[in-house]
User: Fold this.
Amino acid sequence: MIYSEKQTLTWWEVRALQATNIEDIDFPDIVAVDKEDQIILIAEVKGLPFNFQETKSKKYAILRLIDYLQAAKIVIPFAMLADVNKILIFQWDGNNLSEPILNLNTADVLSDYEPKFRNKRIFSLYLKGLIEAWISDFCYHWKSEIPPASKEIAEIGLSQLLKGGITQP
Assistant:
């Protein structure tokens, strides 16, 4: 999408134009934008059989997040890693990715959206949908006025940015 007032392409649009095959385009699993269409969060999500509990897979996922953040050429303030066990949220200052500033239990957060979360095998596509539903609840409160982990998300300044925003595929 070309923004008429800026006449610039987003990083993902440039990548799409440069790609010779659709398989060459690499995007974060989730992108959340604020009410002014500014990207405020990107996320990598892994459901069963994968997770970020192993040091090597977590390190690789963090490097992918940093690649996305650096390539965007704008400061995207938050990044997230989510698997069936943990939701980790990081801050990005344009140069460095912080250690996790928020560490949430995934089942505690997402059980409101999937009551059988603790007793069900949750694969990547479904987990991605549940994470998007949770983020969307902060954007426009489609399910709850007070989404799970609201206090924690507000304390880091993310809920204020999400209000009125949306997630993008």
